[in-house]
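A favour, since you know our structure tokens better than I do. It will help me judge whether the discrete encoding reads sensibly. The space below this message is yours for that.
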Amino acid sequence: MNMVQSQIQSIDEQLLSGSLSVDELQELQAFEQEQIKLNAEFEVLHNFYKQDTIIALDERIKSVQEQIAQRSQLVFAGIEYAAKRAELTFSKLATQNVKIVLFKVLKTTSEIKNVFQFTYKDRDYKRLSRSEKLLAGVETAELIKSLTGRNYPIFIDDAESIENIPKPSGQAMLAIVRPKTWLTVTYLSNTLPLVKAS
């Protein structure tokens, strides 16, 4: 998980800077400050100075605005790049029905926010039925096996809650409650009754 946290932190840092260097960010901020100052000067000159001075100042304002627009495009492109990179980095955290979301791009500010969302068929895990939670768990176990390269056995409790459990890739143990039935162990369709203790 440390690698995932490191990648998220790296993406957060890229979003804060928009892939601009420290000097470029400072230059962008200086342009913005200069625009505020020039707008204030323009208001004063508009009332007191000759028309040609106003025109020259207006041209300076337009030039600064163009430079701000160029820098803003670079920041936006950097944000888009970081968001896409994050999307590709974590694209393996999903199966056909299960998705694990570790970040979200906020629509209002375009910044990346760390989250943890677990969904099954695009529905939040907390809102799933008992059988859906069981199916989501089986798919998640398969996802973990795929990510780790290990073939762990899985244990499925309350297996009577659902029919047609998908066959796991490895060994699986299912616990099923059947009313008025002795405790038995079934292995590959062979039932072994347990001897009652005396």
